[in-house]
Each structure stands twice: as structure tokens, then as C-alpha cells.
Design a protein that fits this description.
Pathway: One-carbon metabolism; formaldehyde assimilation via serine pathway; Carbohydrate metabolism; tricarboxylic acid cycle; succinate from succinyl-CoA (ligase route): step 1/1
Keywords: ATP-binding, Ligase, Magnesium, Metal-binding, Nucleotide-binding, Tricarboxylic acid cycle
Distance between the termini: 40 Å
CATH architecture of the largest domain: 3-Layer(aba) Sandwich
Number of helices: 13
CATH superfamily of the largest domain: Succinyl-CoA synthetase domains
Helix content: 25-40%
GO molecular function, one term: succinate-CoA ligase (ADP-forming) activity
Shape: elongated
Enzyme class: ligase
Cofactor: Mg(2+)
């Protein structure tokens, strides 16, 4: 689960991390009211959407000459002008894709005198199975280019989860970021603070970009991006309250209600599969034959008829879907249950696109019989390769 920058900063501040005074606003009037309460004379007006690259983004309604989604303002009047341009308009960044996201709230923050911009994140290092800090002296909007062109400027420091964050670890980070004097003292406090927040709140990502050294030598969290492990949210009702469903895909919201693992993608072939590994293989083979998957959807190992029906409805609700591939290997999951769910869903919502079904495993003969006896226009497949070829061909024929 993702949260907004202002929520992330509020959370980190509660742990003791240094952040600038700021407030979230939802209207131009609020922007003016709260800007007058900030110290000034420099302000930062930040679009609040669940996507990175806001500073280099553009508002679709304002044309190519429009400024990005993060702007400096040197007066309250400039704050108001920026808020009027940004609120209600659609910000397109590298992470939103062409559709962009509507800006419904802004974060008005007091400005800072920046001396250096650094990069810091904490995530789970799959290679070591440990939380790890990833830091660089080259912070700011072009960190992706740093990772690609000069990876030697990025340092990764795994943390022993048994020992936790030690002073020796913090000193290593100070050296990697070339922090001295007051900034180094701040680092010895800040790094353990961020690690504590990461572990206690079951975060999957904590990114501070940039972490700045101000001209007075102090460290400050200038931007913050936080994601949480969805499997651990039951332990954190306070975090669940921060969820902004307006920033999420409607189909993903619906899938979460039925405990389905669903992620919307940009392709046109809907997929219903049991098991994450098989789902990834199914998407790969669709791409191999020249098409693109419209989603990742794992119905799990013990799905009921009702759960399968819900999954099918979610797929067909996507207007981009021009064909559907159901690929089930029945172990715990029974093929007859899948077949019953597919038939029930098709009868309820209709079938306007080609549907290819591949079943294998437990009760496969019963499952195939249910599909064959349904009277529905379902294309049977013998194996995954056959299924992928058939759905890609059927969707291609539909374009002609």
C-alpha cells in the first residue's frame, strides 16, 4: 500500500526525522490560508499523487510549456497561482503513463536553503534476505540515470535484522554520503530513526530523495516515498486509515475485496491463473507470441466458485481487454471449480471477446466436461503454449 508524501513525512516526523513545516490542502483558498501561516519567504507547492517524477511531469491540460508538479514560489501570491493551475488538472509523469493522474490535493511546504542533495532508501535486499540501505551522493530527480550510468556512486548496506541498526552501520552511511561535522552527527541520529520506522511499520520501501544537507549543515528529509507490505497491514490499523483509494485502480480495489492478487497492466489479453509463478510464465509466453497481458491475476490455490466468478468479472470490466486466457494447473485448486466459476461468470456478464481455457490437474476431465456442456463459445487448449498461440491469434483476428 502506498501513501502520499505529506502522510509519509508526518509519519517519519513522529519518529523524530527532521522535516520542514507543511500542510496538505484541497483548494486554492486553503493554499492561501496555510501559506500565510508558514515562515516563508520561499515555499514549495507539491502535487500529491502516488507516482514519482512529479517535478519533471507536465499537466496535460496546460500544454508542453507548463511547469511541473513540484514548484517553488517566492510569495503567497505565487503559491495561489500555482495551486490554481495544479488542482483538478491531470499530471503526467514517467510513472503514471500517458493517462496521468488527477491532482486533488497539494502539499504546501516551507522552503529550504539547499547545499547538497543526497539519495537514501531502505528496502528488502532479496540477495541477502535483509533490510538494506541504498544511498548515493547524487540525489535528486535524476537518480535513475545515476543508477544506469554511474552505478559505482551508489552504495548498498545490508543490515543484520538480529543486531538491528548499529552505530557502525550509521558511520558507514556517513562515509558513503560524505557527511561531516553537524551533518554527520545528524546522520548518526537519522539513519537509526528511519530504520526503526521501516521495521516497526512493516514498510516495503522507504525512499528519501532528496535527503538534503542545508547551508547551516543540518540534514532534512525533503521528500519521502513510503510503501507498506500489504500482508502486514492487519497489524497497523493506523496505516490502513491513510489509504487513498482515489489513487488506486478501481479493478485492483475490487480485487482486494475478494482477496485476489491483481495488478492492472497496459496490454489487451486478460489473464486468470492460479499461482504467482504460473501467472508470470503465462504473461511471458503471451509476450513471446507478440501480444501484451492486460493484468496479473492470481486466484490462489483454494479459490471458490464465487471467487473465480469475481475474478472473471474484474477482467471483463477492463475495456482494454480484447481476449481472455484462463490457465489453471489444478493441485489444491480443482479444475471443476474453475470451470464452474467461468461458466457462471460468462452467463452473468456475457462474453464479448475470445476466451481460451487451458485446464490441467485435479478433476481436469470434470472441468473440461463442464465447459464443453455449457454451450458457451469457449476455445479449449491442450497446454500453455497452445493456449497462448490461440488467444493471440484470436485477438489478432478480431483486429482485422
Amino acid at each position: 500500500m502506498n501513501i502520499h508524501e505529506y502522510q509519509a513525512k508526518r509519519l517519519l516526523h513522529s519518529y523524530g526525522a527532521p522535516v520542514a513545516p507543511g500542510v496538505a490542502v484541497y483548494s486554492v483558498e486553503q493554499a492561501e490560508e496555510w501559506a500565510r501561516k508558514l515562515p516563508g519567504p520561499l515555499y514549495v507547492v507539491k502535487s500529491q499523487i502516488h507516482a514519482g517524477g512529479r517535478g519533471k511531469g507536465k499537466f496535460k491540460e496546460l500544454g508542453d510549456d507548463a511547469k511541473g508538479g513540484v514548484r517553488l514560489a517566492h510569495s503567497v501570491e505565487e503559491v495561489v497561482d500555482n495551486a490554481r493551475e495544479m488542482l483538478g488538472n491531470t499530471l503526467e509523469t514517467k510513472q503514471t503513463g500517458p493517462a496521468g493522474k488527477q491532482v486533488n490535493r497539494l502539499y504546501i511546504e516551507d522552503g529550504a536553503d539547499i547545499d547538497r542533495e543526497l539519495y537514501l532508501s531502505i528496502l528488502i535486499d532479496r540477495a541477502t534476505g535483509r533490510p538494506a540501505f541504498v544511498v548515493s551522493t547524487e540525489g535528486g530527480m535524476d537518480i535513475e540515470a545515476v543508477a544506469e550510468e554511474t552505478p559505482d556512486k551508489i552504495t548498498t548496506l545490508p543490515i543484520d535484522p538480529v543486531k538491528g541498526m548499529t552505530e557502525a552501520d550509521a558511520k558507514k552511511l556517513n562515509r558513503a554520503l560524505k557527511l561531516t561535522k553537524q551533518a554527520a552527527k545528524d546522520g548518526l541520529d537519522l539513519f537509526p530513526t528511519l530504520y526503526k520506522a521501516f521495521t516497526e511499520k512493516d514498510m516495503s520501501l522507504l525512499e528519501v530523495n532528496p535527503l538534503i544537507v542545508m547551508k547551516d549543515g543540518r540534514l532534512r528529509v525533503l521528500d519521502a516515498k513510503v510503501s507498506f507490505d500489504g500482508n502486514a497491514l492487519f497489524r497497523h490499523p493506523d496505516i490502513v486509515e491513510l489509504r487513498d483509494i482515489s489513487e488506486e485502480d478501481e479493478k485492483e480495489i475490487e480485487a482486494s475485496k475478494h482477496d485476489l492478487a491483481y495488478v492492472a497492466l497496459d496490454g489487451n489479453i486478460g489473464c486468470m491463473v492460479n499461482g504467482a509463478g504460473l501467472a508470470m510464465a503465462t504473461m511471458d509466453i503471451i509476450k513471446l507470441y507478440g501480444a501484451e497481458p492486460a493484468n496479473f491475476l492470481d486466484v490462489g490455490g483454494g479459490a471458490s466458485k464465487e471467487k473465480v466468478t469475481a475474478a472473471f468479472k474484474i477482467i471483463t470490466a477492463d475495456r482494454n481487454v480484447k481476449g481472455i486466457l484462463v490457465n489453471i494447473f489444478g493441485g489444491i485448486m480443482r479444475c471443476d471449480v474453475i470451470a464452474e466459476g467461468v461458466v457462471a461468470a460468462v452467463k452473468e456478464v456475457g462474453l464479448k471477446v475470445p476466451l481460451v481455457v487451458r485446464l490441467e490437474g485435479t478433476n481436469v476431465d470434470q472441468g473440461k466436461a463442464i465447459l464443453n456442456d455449457s454451450g458457451l463459445d469457449i476455445i479449449a487448449a491442450d497446454d500453455l503454449d497452445d493456449a497462448a498461440k490461440k488467444i493471440v491469434a484470436a485477438v489478432s483476428e478480431g483486429k482485422e
